[in-house]
Amino acid sequence: ADCRPGSYPNCQDWNIGINRVNPRGAVVYGHANIPIHQGSSSSAHGQLHGSRVFGGPYSGAQTVGGNLNYQHNNGVHGSVGATHTRGVGNSFSASAGGSGKLGPGTLSVGGGASTIPGSSSVQGQVEATYSVPLP
Fold it and tell me: pLDDT over 70 for what percent of the chain?
């Protein structure tokens, strides 16, 4: 679910499930999307997620993490997140961007970076798009 600035949307979302993992195992997973701030011009929401494997050769595998997201109606947005994978390590991510009118079109610029679990290596990307409506 997505929380947007303006009138309060239904952006609270909770989900818990179970799936089969071959051979002879099951993974229990869940996530929650939680509104933190909802104003007329901006919003923020947090997300929590996790999973755990029971049974089979992957028994005990576990991942937990969370994100914090922000949006402003002027086009600015950003997020930060962290995830821990048992036996592998932590990974971190961050992104930011914005968009606005420029001449006859809209310019959007954004980027992000993340670490590889259990490593200090960082990978990232930056992108920009300019769109002009056709007559």
Answer: 92
Which of 65, 64, 75, 66 lies closest to 42, judged by CA?
75
Count Cβ atoms within 10 A of the Cβ of residue 113 and give its class: 0-12 exposed, 13-18 middle, 19 or more buried: middle
Query: What is the average per-residue pLDDT within 52-66?
Result: 93
Please report which helix (H) or strand (E) contains residue 79, including its range.
Answer: strand 77-85
Per-residue pLDDT band for 39 (boundaries 50, 70, 90) equals: confident
Q: With left for phi above 0 and alpha for psi between -120 and 50, is residue 73 left, alpha or beta?
A: alpha
The SS3 of residue 25 is strand
Alpha-helical regions (H) of 57-97:
none
b/e map 31-64, b = 16+ CB within 10 Å = bebbbeebeeebbbbebebbbbbeeeeeeebebe
